[in-house]
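Hi all, a correction to my earlier message: I attached the wrong file for Abi family protein. Here's the right sequence:
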Amino acid sequence: KHSMDEEYSVWNLVELLSFGKFVELYTIYYQEYKSANYSDYLQSIKFLRNAAAHSNCLMSSIMKPKGEKKFRKTIKLTNALSQAQKEISLHARSKYMAYPAFHDFVALLFVYNDLLKEAANRNMRDKTMDELYHFFCEKDGRVLKYKEYFEKNQVIAEAYKFISGVIQYIKKQNNNPKHKRYLKI
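and the right structure:
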């Protein structure tokens, strides 16, 4: 397609990279060209992507597995979530943000919603978030429709309450015209 090597764009390379290599390229780019970026959150997103791609059971890692390397939550992410005081208690925010799977899921949701906030992408973002809201928060959604499967398990019930609070907060903020972004980058 291209007659000379100089005519290739960076997107031609990105299409060939694994997600891990893409994260490396992204990080290198923003180290060289200083500007607002999401490098602090990409390892969290990479963890979830890899878990999903390799069919890992995240339910088994709801809590920190014993012997796991010390996990360090992202302070900027924790501060951003502190704005959800009505939806999520301080105790729940402190508890669940200390667990890698929850921390990383919140990072994914915040980065996704920040990146797709522009008018050209907003409809797709809102459609996806509506589907997620329906799945977790509405009575005929899958989680509440089959709540009897887990309602006696306090660990899962409390974890669900945290995640549904995050999703409700995001939905509310996405409908607020004054809301700019979740993460200060």
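Sorry for the mix-up. Residues 1-35 form one domain.
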